[in-house]
Structure formats: structure tokens, C-alpha cells
Amino acid sequence: LPHVENCVAFLSSVGGTSNSAGIDGDVLLSTYMCSVLLLDTRTWEEVSCDSIDQYVQLKHIQSLFMLLENSSTSTALDFVHTHYRGELPQGLASAVLDVVRRNDMDTFVALLRDMLVNRLSDASLPPEGELKEYLGYMTELEIEEEDWFLQLPDELTLGHAHTVYKLITDSEE
User: Fold this and answer.
1) Has this prediction a pTM greater than 0.85?
2) What is d(CA 154, CA 151) in angstroms, rounded to the nearest whole number?
3) CA distances from 166 to 33, 87, 141, 142, 162 (A)
4) What is the distance, to the nearest Å, from the Cα of residue 94 to the centroid of all Cα atoms in its chain?
5) CA distance 116 to 6
């Protein structure tokens, strides 16, 4: 799981497998891990299996990661501070789900997860801070012009972050 998590973090930091990032989503994960991220082949063989090596491509990595994480007894998301697990009003939840139905949310989900795991495990950021604003601060990607970013409600705060993440990932299952 940590190796796949590192790959997800790297891909999200460079723009994922989008055309603008110049990364081919059809590349096998095993090839990418060993050739690009320079993971030792023996290390990869110890943590991988034939099915992953033969079939999983970069375009599948988020689904693989979520599957692995869900099968684990505890995840990094368990350590998100309670300040960022606020209830999402029904109107906002509906608005978020409308955005999800109209857009590819892979980049958003990866960025939000990264924020939850790496920035929101303690109470150092204001829960009332605007979620979109902080996402923009925490990435070098130009997300402000993405359709999903423009369509997300401005009323979403850091206090909603975990609930928004769960809402989106649960809706994808």
C-alpha cells in the first residue's frame, strides 16, 4: 500500500494521467513503479502480484489504491482531526453530487485525500477556511480553471473536507 500511495501522490502532484501532464494512463503500473519511480524490482515483486503486474495501468491506480485502503483495517484517513469531519448540509451534499455526476473528479479526489492525510491530521488550519482556496494553495497544478473546481460550491469549508471525500468516494462505488 505505501508504494501505491507514493505513486498516487506523485501522479497527483504532476497532474495525474491527464493529457496536460503528459503521462500515458495506459502504462502498466509495474513498469511505471520500477522504470520511472525507480522502485527496486525485487521490492516491487514482494508487494505485487501477477494480476497487478499484467493488468493494472496507471489509469486504474486510484481504484486500486482505494480497494487496498478499504481492505486495510485502518487507514491514514482515520487520523483526520475531528475539526475537519463536520456534517455536510443536505443542500451542499446534493450540490457536490451534481458536480460529481457532471465531471471527472479523479484529480479533486486525489488532492483532497492528500490534504486530509498530510495537512488535516491536527487542528492547525481553520475549519471555516474555504476548501477550494486551501486546495489551490496546496498544489502547483492550475486547478482554478478546471470545470469541477469552478462548479464546486464556494460554501464548502475545511470543516467539510472528510465528509466531502467520503461522499464522493462512496458515490463512486
Assistant:
1) no
2) 9
3) 28, 11, 23, 24, 6
4) 21
5) 15
Strand partners, 130: 157
In angstroms, the CA 160 to CA 131 distance is: 8
Residue 154 is predicted with a pLDDT of 96
- Residue whose C-alpha cell is 486495510: 72
With a CB cutoff of 8 Å and minimum separation 6, the contacts of 131 are 152, 156, 157, 158, 160, 161, 164
Residue with grid cell 451534499, as numbered in its chain: 93
Residue pLDDT, tens place only, 112-161: 998 998 899 899 999 999 999 999 988 888 899 999 999 999 999 999 99
The C-alpha cell that represents 171 in the structure block: 458515490
DSSP string, 86-116: PPPPHHHHHHHHHHHHHS--HHHHHHHHHHH
